[in-house]
Design goal:
Blueprint lengths: L10 H15 L11 E6 L15 H9 L5 E7 L8 H12 L5 E4 L7 H11 L4 E5 L2 E5 L11 H12 L7 E5 L22 H4 L5 H10 L5 E6 L11 E6 L2 E6 L8 E7 L4 E7 L26 E2 L6 E4 L8 E6 L3 E2 L6 E6 L5 E10 L3 E2 L3 E7 L6 H4 L3 E5 L3 E8 L3 E8 L5 E9 L2 E8 L6 E9 L2 E9 L1
Parallel strand pairs: 1-2, 2-3, 5-6, 6-7, 7-9, 12-19
Antiparallel strand pairs: 1-10, 4-5, 8-9, 10-11, 13-16, 14-17, 15-16, 17-18, 17-19, 20-21, 21-24, 22-23, 22-25, 25-26
Length: 469
Amino acid sequence: MKFTHSIYLNIKHLRILFCILCIFAGNVSNAQSGSEYSILVAGHAYGAHAGKNIGLHPPFLDKLRTNTDNKVAALFLTGDLVNNSTSASWTQVETELSGLGLTSYYVMGNHDNNTIGHAVFRKKHGGTYYSATIQNELYIVLNSTESDRSISPAQLKFLDGVLKNAVSSQKRIFIFFHEIIWNSHEKYRLVRSNSRSRYEFMINISNFWNQVFPMLTAYPEKKFYLIAGDVGGNPDAIAASYDRWENVTLISSGMGEVPDDNYLKVDILPDTVNFTLIPLNPGVSMNPLPWYNIPEKPGQISGPAIVFSSGSATKYQVSPVGNATAYHWTLSTGISGSSDSAAINVNFNTGFQTGKISVSAVNDGFGESEPSVLEVHAENTIVSEKEIGSGFRIIQNPESIQLMIYSEKNQKASLKVYNPLGSTLFVRDFQLNPGQNIKEIPAGWHDHGLQLFELSFDNKRLVQKIILY
């Protein structure tokens, strides 16, 4: 198969080469004639730093030999194919790949980056960055080692030319490079990629967010899938990652020194793209790819916003976040308690007046979410309506309790009732219509005495206390 050479060509020549590529793409080995096919992607493919293999990671090769699939059109190796870039190592890799019968594409990694590695890439692909077409998808390979952990000016020009000349029917574009160059964003400051790809080593180097990302979002009608391979190669590293910004999906996958070593299977279907992480070690199962991300902010904290003088602990909790491995609770002065789960029992010190309870979801290796925050006040504290509100009335009858609620629009609301110890006595969700609403709650469910009614809707929390008889 013929590839676009690394040297940037003028627009006329690019159009000619692009047409040639489209013709040759239909003859890619193992590609299916239908509209469904798969590709495999493997990062840090030599495996462990101390491994004795000079070629590909042995468990990876074993898995490929047993997991044969005639729908696989190609294998992309996203950098660090060899531990030491020697002629013997590259010969070993070529021998191993030829035995698999897979069309392979190389991506330059820092371990591959020397004169021998460059010669291998020139012979195989015409250079260290290039493009190809498989069926109707465009595949672009970049070299993030040419300008250290960045995309060089020549490659930016190359990428711009390829995108401008992509045919309109190519709605899905896959771009590969080795280092996780998007980790230069502060959002990823706690993500444990391989050491070279961590935030502190990217922040002053990578040009991803100011030059590469804007180039992709300039084509909102297209979906871009960026896949990097610099993970899984340190004992404390993550083995995969996922995130999405606008029309750009960011993915990494790798192997070598972590229990959940893996490679990535990408199924390209007519109307969607599916990603599956394939574990290499026995007894290991992988989560769905979106799990490997910084958690979403927890929902509203459940628990009383007004607390009463009591020596008993008061419970607060949030609904579990799907990919959280722990929770980080933060308590204001005068509030004490400890927990790493989605619930916490807290005590309010004598003389407590007002404070905040906040919680973030944590995914070990990725970081923590923005916090969800609840303001809490002592029952004898004067609080403005803006802070806790009082926009509903409670009317007691012998047979029921009526709530009169004014709403400016159609919306869902949730009522929770707590006793002075913070225990939840009653929960009900209902729909509010514009104007005055009357909601009736049958009697008999509640304790007598002082109770706290908390109504939540439209990101507001309205609180009233009443003595029930």
